[in-house]
């Protein structure tokens, strides 16, 4: 059988998450957001009389209040932070290489850069920044 595709909108409703399955005017509830897809898939499979593996779900979550805006801002700040950390690592690497070429010991390079000696060795080898 062909895969059935359904759009499901999930929103908070009291102490649970309300799942609205528009094509079949169905609703279901999930206790946790993480189980929404499984609950919707089981509901649709039962309604259509098919195996749950034949049901494809596209979830759209409608968060309460301004939550979506805050989540967008957090994602933007995370991206900016990741870029800043990579830029910091590159600047530290450049400084470490210059100090190393000037004959400064790894211990002193670590003191100057605020890094432990193993991190100094890593940065001088061109290793990636730890996540």
Write the layout of secondary structure elements.
Blueprint: E1 4-13, E2 16-21, E3 26-30, H1 36-48, E4 55-62, H2 67-101, H3 106-113, H4 117-125
Parallel strand pairs: 1-4
Antiparallel strand pairs: 1-2, 2-3
CATH class (first level) name of the largest domain = Alpha Beta
Q: Please tally the β strands and state the result.
A: 4
* CATH architecture term of the largest domain: 2-Layer Sandwich
- Percent range for β-strand residues: 15-25%
* Count of domains: 2
The CATH topology of the largest domain is what?
Double Stranded RNA Binding Domain
Kindly provide the radius of gyration, computed on alpha-carbon positions and rounded to a whole number of angstroms. 26 Å
Rough outline: elongated
N-to-C span: 44 Å
Number of helices: 4
Structural class call reads alpha+beta
Sheet of most strands: 4 strands, mixed
Lateral strand order in the biggest sheet = 3-2-1-4
Order of secondary-structure elements: EEEHEHHH
Helix percent reads: 40-55%
Average of pLDDT: 95
- What are the segments in which pLDDT stays under 50 over at least 5 consecutive residues? none
């Amino acid at each position: 059988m062909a895969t059935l595709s359904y759009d499901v909108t999930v929103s908070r409703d009291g102490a649970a998450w309300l799942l609205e399955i528009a094509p079949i005017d169905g609703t279901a509830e999930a206790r946790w957001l993480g189980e929404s897809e499984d609950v919707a898939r089981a509901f649709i499979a039962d309604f259509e009389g098919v195996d749950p593996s034949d049901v494809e779900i596209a979830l759209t979550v409608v968060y309460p209040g301004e939550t979506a805006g805050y989540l967008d801002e957090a994602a933007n700040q995370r991206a900016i932070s990741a870029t800043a950390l990579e830029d910091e690592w590159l600047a530290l690497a450049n400084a470490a290489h210059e100090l190393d070429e000037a004959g400064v010991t790894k211990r002193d390079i670590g003191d100057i850069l605020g890094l432990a000696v193993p991190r100094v060795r890593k940065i001088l080898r061109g290793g990636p920044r730890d996540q």
